[in-house]
Amino acid sequence: MIGTGFASAAAMMLIGGLIGIYLSTRASVIAAGDVWLPSGVTIPLTQPNMMAITMVFSVFIMIWAISSLGRGDRAMAYVALGLVLLMGFAVIAQTGYLLTIMELELASDVRAPLIYAVIGTHLAILGAAMVFVAVMTLRALGGEYSKKDREGVYSAALFWYVTVFLYMVVWFAIYITK
Amino acid sequence: MALTETRPETDPEVDAPAAVPAAPTVDSVLGTGDHKTIGRLWIGGGLLFLVAGLVFDLLANAEIADLSGFAIADSQGQLTQFWSLGRDLLLFGGLIPVLIGIGTYVVPLQVGSSSIAFPRGAAAALWIWGIATIILVLAYIMNGGPGGGRVDYVVLWTLALGVMILALLWAMVCIATTVLGARATGMSLEMVPVTSWGFLVFATGSVLALPVLLGELVLAYIDVKFGFLATNESREGLVSIMNSVNLAPALYFIAVPVLAMTVDIIGVHTGRPARFHRSILAIIGLFGFLAYGADMLSFAWRGRPLALDNGLLVIATVACALPILLTLALAGESMAKGKAKINTPLAAALLSGVMLLAGAVTAILGTVDPIVSFIEDIFDTSINFSFDIAGTSFHWGVRAFVVGAVALGIISGVHHWGHKIWGRSLDDRLGFLAVLATLGGTVAWGASSVVAGFLDQPGLPVSDPAGDSTVEIVNLVSAAGAGLVAAGMGLLLLNVLGVVAGRVGSAAEPWTGATLEWATASPPIPENFSPAPVVSSSTPLIDMTLEASADANNDEVAS
Fold it and tell me: Domain of B168?
């Protein structure tokens, strides 16, 4: 748990730093009288909102997984952990689709790298969280965790919650604020 | 495939530890999870790259000792490459890895743990760092690095540096988790030895600060990869990415574990552990807080030059001198009231503190201009006084003092725990030579860079034919200083190699202390302690000695 706490703090600082640069650069561009998003680029709300709902829902599924392990109901725990992974895949796929319909070419404008850097870094953190959850699921399948010892799953859950929190920050800073 | 960190159940007779450790083989070293082996490898690899980084710093400074043209580098771009490679290797290839090596070895012993937390993770961090550092050097050789001419290798530079930082962070997480989660029975957080506490503060602060630098490297990667920095000149701006962690007061973060080690080492070699243990922990914590706070405030991303233009940053710069002063004062009390035996660890520890204080006081000079501006704004007046040193080599002179202080701290730490690490103590005469060379080099390098700053020498070395001969002489002194520090660290490396080969030093235990690492053999048995220790204070060995005396008295009375 302690190691996961440190890793979570590092992930928060990584995204925090990038968001800080993004918002500061955006403020400078707007203060100079320019428009932030390049012309022809739109950020629809449907896909980001669906991803936000999916991520929030995955938090409850993760709580369900931990609770199931605590009650000794391993079958439900496996289902819940599998659902969390499925939701992670769904968010990644939806992000890919969103980037396609945004029509923001990476090489077209200096603002594009900032947007892609933030979104891409969060995707990388999400991928790491999914790997963590997958490894803990495999360990649970191997009989590692029980009612009294759930620390590995708690650690994966902590990192997952932080990943969801970071998505909400990205959702507000990029998709809502535009 | 075993996914767990716990050992499988085995026959206890077969699993009994061997009386004499077997000679290491290649596969045992590559696959080891033993923190002692990992620590030795960090120290060895880090010292090698530290010397290399200092040599490149020497070359860059030597080039600008003659401003009329290029004698060592071919062009300004190559000069920038030398300087940047020296800077990257010095911090992420040398100083931090050696400190991690000392921490990886000593911290589990000090807190009474049988192993470091996440042992395979600690090993993975070591090997990933080593490979990434080699790739970093190769990227520079292939004309990568900031200002490099080959885009693919500039991209490789960003990737290699990013992976190095990730690996170092991972290693630090292992050390911090050991302190927080693997302490001996009875050891509360306030009983943790000062060195281990220093590493905990160092690791925690780094985990919070270095990811922000990683974010900047991510942006740099995208910018270079997708053609936003199409020319060599535009890519030279990438040099400023690393400024925030290379300049004071943010740079003080690497001095946090050194300041902590100084307290422990002086306590052992004066026979008088520093008093007010909790206060010392608070002072070290304060120093770390100020250093990391300064790092956050001075985060100088590309296009925003580092400047002390923030009131909080000025306060942090001035305030950083206070914890150093307090620590030296406590050390001074130990020196005055204890029985100091002057040897390499003690001399290096004291001089490390003095150099750190010199750097901190010099850094305060850099706050004069912003304070004058502030007063002029508040009182709507004009004072007409300015050092005008923003963006000059003044700040790199302060860096030289801090680097020299950390180098001296490393000499002190490696000598102090050398017998514990290799089973043989390092040669004291070589050690004194290393201390003298490093001290002299630090003073020459630091003072001359500061003076050059007042003479308007830019922070980034620039071969400028319009520069005058006074600056050239000062730059030559600076180069000599960097060379002396390189020689000092080279002597330390030779000393270590001599001890590993069994050619220098002595097998006799040279000293002992009050903390748990002195309760083990040198080097310790595989599980460090048998049985696991139980402690009740911050000086467990003194408690054990008192208990043994009390038992002996009781036996005498009984008989």
Answer: 31-461+468-558
CB contact under 8 A, A13 and B209: yes
Provide the 10 A C-beta neighbour count for residue B450: 26
The span from the CA of B259 to the CA of B54, in Å, is 22
Within 10 Å of residue B18's Cβ, how many Cβ atoms? 8
The answer to whether B216 faces chain A, any CB pair under 8 Å, is yes
ipTM more than 0.90?
A: no
For the whole model, what pTM was predicted? 0.89
Mean pLDDT, chain B, rounded, equals 83
The tokens for A17 are 């730093």
Count Cα neighbours of A99 within 13 Å in the Cβ-side half-sphere: 16
The number of C-beta contacts closer than 8 angstroms across A and B is 82
Residue B244 has pLDDT above 50, yes or no: yes
pLDDT tens per residue, range B251-291 = 888 999 999 999 999 988 888 877 788 888 999 999 998 88
Q: Which two tokens stand for residue B256?
A: 């946090």
Q: Give how far A2 is from chain B: nearest CA, Å.
A: 6
Six token digits for residue B504 = 């220098």
State the CATH number of the domain containing residue B38: 1.20.210.10
Closest chain B residue to A16 measured between Cα atoms?
B212
Token pair 């600008």: residue: B64
Check whether B6 has a pLDDT greater than 80.
Answer: no
Give residue B303's pLDDT. 45
Which domains, ranges and CATH numbers included, belong to chain A?
Answer: 2-32+47-176 (1.20.120.80)
| Residue B208 to chain A, least CA–CA distance (Å) | 6
Predicted pLDDT of residue A61 = 95
Q: Report residue B9: phi and psi, to 5°.
A: -65, 135
Question: In terms of CA atoms, which chain A residue is nearest residue B121?
Answer: A3
- Measured CA to CA, the distance from residue B213 to residue B216 in angstroms comes to 5
Residue B440 above 90 pLDDT? yes
B26 occurs within a structural domain = no
Residue B506 counted as domain residue: yes
Say if residue B523 is preceded by a cis peptide, omega within 30 of 0: yes
B148-154 mean pLDDT? 84
CB distance B146 to B208 below 8 Å: no
Q: How many domains does chain B have?
A: 1
pLDDT above 50: residue B3: no
Q: Taking 70 as the threshold, does the pLDDT of residue B492 lie above it?
A: yes
CA distance B169 to B213: 12
**Is residue B6 in some structural domain?**
no
Do A174 and A123 form a contact (C-beta atoms < 8 A)? no
**For residues A161 and A155, what is the distance between their CA atoms, to the nearest angstrom?**
10
Band (pLDDT 50/70/90 cuts) for residue B473 is confident
Residue among B498, B476, B492, B351 at smallest CA distance from B424: B498
Q: Which residue in A has a C-alpha nearest to residue B3's C-alpha? A: A139
Percent of chain A with pLDDT over 90: 48
**pLDDT score recorded for residue B42:** 95
Of A7, A14, A144, the CB nearest to B215: A14
**Highest averaged pLDDT of the listed ranges A134-148, B482-496, B519-533:** B482-496
- Give the residue, B63 or A81, on which the prediction is more confident: A81
Sign, CA dihedral B328-B330-B335-B336, equals positive
Q: By CB neighbour count within 10 A (0-12 exposed, 13-18 middle, 19+ buried), where does A74 fall?
A: middle
B300 in any annotated domain = yes
Are B211 and A14 in contact (CB < 8 Å)? yes
User: CA–CA separation, B398 vs B453, rounded Å?
Assistant: 10
The answer to whether B142 and B153 have CB atoms below 8 angstroms apart is: yes
